[in-house]
Amino acid sequence: MGASKGFFWAVCIICICGSRGYSRSVVDYEKVIRIARKEIGVVERTGKNDGARIAEYLNYCNIKSPAPYCAAWVSWCFGQAGYSQPKTAWSPSLFPTSRLVKEPKPGVVFGIYYSGLGRIGHCGIIESVRNDWVYGLEANTNVVGSREGQGVYRKIRHKRTIAKYADWIK
């Protein structure tokens, strides 16, 4: 009897939250994160932005392989979650003013500014935030966090190293 009462209240809470719009966005952000997590460990075939999976990310944005693919991968993850946008392989275009947010949160896209480029030059999806640290899921990176890496990794970056955050679900 106690277990069924607990289940009843859990269903009621889910229904109430859903009807007030609380759970939909949380579920949507988590869906994007789950898709991105499944890609951890994908690596390039020869280390030159190539390989079947990398080509799939790039093809999603109508880009021929080989090419840098961090933004294409972000776009692909959102596409797999059922979103038509973003759909770009150009990392600066992931940060239009209408999508910018001040605070990082799971499921939001982050961008790293490179002074040598004079623009955002790398991006990823936030998995979690702990104090001043952003745990991100990134493609075209490596163990040291390069923007010219060879695969999909989970990285930890300090908030001060991140230039912009964009919310593509809100």
Brief characterization of the structure:
By secondary structure, the chain is of the alpha+beta class. It is 32% helix and 24% strand. It has one domain: endopeptidase fold (from Nostoc punctiforme), CATH 3.90.1720.
Defining key terms:
170 residues, CHAP domain-containing protein, alpha+beta, CHAP_dom, endopeptidase fold (from Nostoc punctiforme), 32% helix, 4 helices, disordered N terminus, six-stranded antiparallel sheet, 24% strand, globular
Structural description of this entry:
- There is one protein chain.
- With 170 residues, the chain is of the alpha+beta class.
- It has a single domain (2-166), classed as endopeptidase fold (from Nostoc punctiforme), CATH 3.90.1720.
- Helix content is 32%, strand content 24%.
- The chain has helices spanning 2-19, 22-38, 52-60, 70-80, and strands spanning 100-101, 109-114, 119-130, 133-141, 151-158, 164-166.
- Strands 1-6-2-3-4-5 form a 6-stranded antiparallel sheet.
- α2 (22-38) crosses α4 and α3 packs across α4.
- The termini are far apart.
- 32% of the residues are buried.
- InterPro entries: CHAP_dom.
- It comes from Pedobacter frigoris.
- This is CHAP domain-containing protein.
- Residues 67-140 form the Peptidase C51 domain.
